[in-house]
Design a protein that fits this description.
The protein is mainly alpha-helical. It contains 22 helices and 5 strands. The strands form 2 sheets. A 3-stranded antiparallel beta sheet has the order 3-4-5, covered by helices on one side. Strands 1-2 form a two-stranded antiparallel ribbon. A hairpin with a 2-residue loop joins strand 4 and strand 5.
């Protein structure tokens, strides 16, 4: 037994952890002063840089929250850049190019070329079987260090987390420097320059147009009203000029990124901090097409008109869809069907959004609004963004008028669980296999039933719950997953076997579902 002083023994116990933290700090500072030198991080920024490059999921300082924010910032900057850099490109080419820029493969190749991979911290300190590395051993090594295999997603995530870290420190300016430094192959356009380019490229109003009712609905008075007309013009519309014939698709491409940013920055800033999983679930709930279409139907503005029959003044409530310009009768027919579905389910959806402890995915599944209805919400956001020279607060006015921000604040206040039923079911059954099996009408109900999608959930090959029907496959599977989840959790909002397929069943906390008899 060596008679060591107590202070030496305590130091020996603590030294491995101290050395680990020192090593991590040296790695992060080397990254700061070399590869990230153009970003101009300060020494005081080391803690957030360490968090950004620490990938251990069990570590308190793992990068996932920063990656969530950085992913949103990168997509926003890429969208604004491409819109201004390719003024004539259609939405399909913009989406394809953006997908390549933000793909894991593109990010990983860029980071590997820059040497970022050697700065990624993948091992969490445990102290088990720890031994120091002595300088004499390091100096004596002649062979290069073995290459550590890392997934492309991990490397891509670290780039996004560094972008998120840059944004938290210096906003878009520093985030742009980080993007430009880590992804030099793309000729990035600064956001303010892109905003000016987009505004100047928007055609000036050829003739005065009175859009006061529509502007009141949006909550923004447009300098260039042709932007608002473009945002509400479907590709099938045959206008009198090229200006009025422009489709909303490019603006929808931009508005999608703006809306994603508006929601994501609130999720990241929430106190206490939300986990990566919760932020992802809430954002998915707030920007999904069914929810956007529902809020669009519910958001109206009164307009005084004259009844053509009685010639008496009356008030009509106008919604965004009523201003859409199109030349496709099938489009109007699908819209009318969506309106009827909305009217049938709206009261239960409103109750679910206002009161339930879980986001009512299964109730929104009772509607099947065509994509163009949610697209015009995003295209109007894009139009406001360009008209206001990139003023996010002007876009937030419209998003709040739609009730999206109020719903988000209610989720924060009441801690609403926004996990999708299908994702929750996968967690509930742990490692068991979940399969959604389609049931044809002839197998169960004979001939003559309407053309709805019917499915049965099987867990490890065994039927769980009843046969559920929905408007389409995704809607039916969402309702079925909700039912099976309720059964496995023992909740009282599971689907009842004797409920009618043509009625809504009041099911307590979770609201109602439409199912087979």
């Amino acid at each position: 037994m060596d008679l060591l002083p107590a202070a030496c023994s305590i130091f020996a116990v603590l030294f491995p952890s101290i050395l680990h933290r020192l090593t991590v700090a040296v790695v992060a500072d080397t990254l700061r002063t070399t590869l990230l030198h153009p970003v101009a991080f300060e020494p005081a920024d080391l803690p957030i840089i360490i968090r950004a490059v620490t990938s251990s999921a069990t570590d308190d300082d793992n990068y996932q929250r920063l990656e969530f924010l950085g992913d949103c910032i990168l997509k926003f900057v890429a969208s604004v850049h491409l819109m201004s850099h390719k003024l004539k490109w259609p939405e399909s080419l913009l989406t394809g190019k953006k997908g390549k820029i933000v793909s894991n493969g593109f990010l990983a190749r860029a980071s590997m070329a820059a040497g970022l991979d050697k700065f990624v911290i993948t091992k969490r300190f445990t102290g088990a079987k720890w031994s120091p590395r002595y300088s004499r051993d390091l100096l004596a090594e002649t062979e290069p260090m073995p290459t550590v295999e890392q997934s492309s997603k991990l490397i891509a995530d670290v780039i996004e987390s560094l972008i998120g870290a840059s944004y938290t420190i210096g906003g878009f300016d520093k985030a742009f420097l980080c993007i430009k430094t880590l992804l030099p192959l793309e000729p990035w356009t600064p956001v303010p320059v892109a905003n000016t380019t987009l505004h100047e490229a928007a055609p000036a109003d050829a003739t005065p147009v009175n859009l006061s009712i529509l502007e009141g609905l949006v909550g923004h008075t447009f300098r260039k009203k042709t932007l608002l007309l473009e945002a509400l013009t479907h590709g099938s519309f045959q206008g009198a000029s090229t200006q009025t014939h422009s489709s909303y698709e490019r603006l929808e491409f931009l508005g999608d990124a703006v809306l994603d940013y508006i929601i994501s920055k609130r999720l990241y800033a929430h106190e206490p901090p939300l986990s990566h999983q919760k932020m992802h679930g809430i954002r998915t709930a707030m920007v999904n097409a069914s929810f956007l279409a529902f809020r669009m139907f519910e958001t109206t503005i009164p307009e005084e008109t004259t009844n053509k029959t009685t010639m008496q003044p009356e008030v009509q409530h106008r919604a965004l869809w009523q201003f859409l310009r199109s030349g496709d009768n099938a489009l109007n027919a699908s819209r009318d069907i969506a309106l009827r579905q909305h009217e049938q389910a709206r009261e239960q959806i409103i109750a679910g959004l206002s009161n339930d402890a879980r986001f009512p995915w299964h109730l929104l599944a009772l509607t099947d609004a065509p994509k163009f209805l949610s697209d015009i919400v995003e295209s109007v956001i894009g139009a406001v963004y360009i008209d206001s020279h990139g003023d996010i607060s002007a876009c937030e006015v419209f998003v709040r008028r739609l009730g999206i921000l109020d719903c988000l604040e209610r989720i924060f206040r009441d801690r609403v669980d926004c996990f999708h039923p299908k994702e929750r079911l996968n967690l509930l059954v742990v490692e068991k296999k979940v399969k959604y099996v389609r049931v044809t009408a002839g197998e169960e109900a004979g001939v003559g039933r309407d053309k709805k999608y019917r499915c049965q959930v099987k867990v490890n090959g065994e039927n769980v719950g009843g046969i559920v029907e929905g408007l389409k496959r995704l809607q039916a599977e969402t309702i079925a997953a909700w039912e099976v989840g309720a059964i496995l959790e023992g909740r009282d909002d599971a689907v009842k076997e004797d409920a009618s397929s043509d009625e809504f069943f009041d099911a307590g906390e979770g609201g109602g579902v439409m199912l087979d008899g």
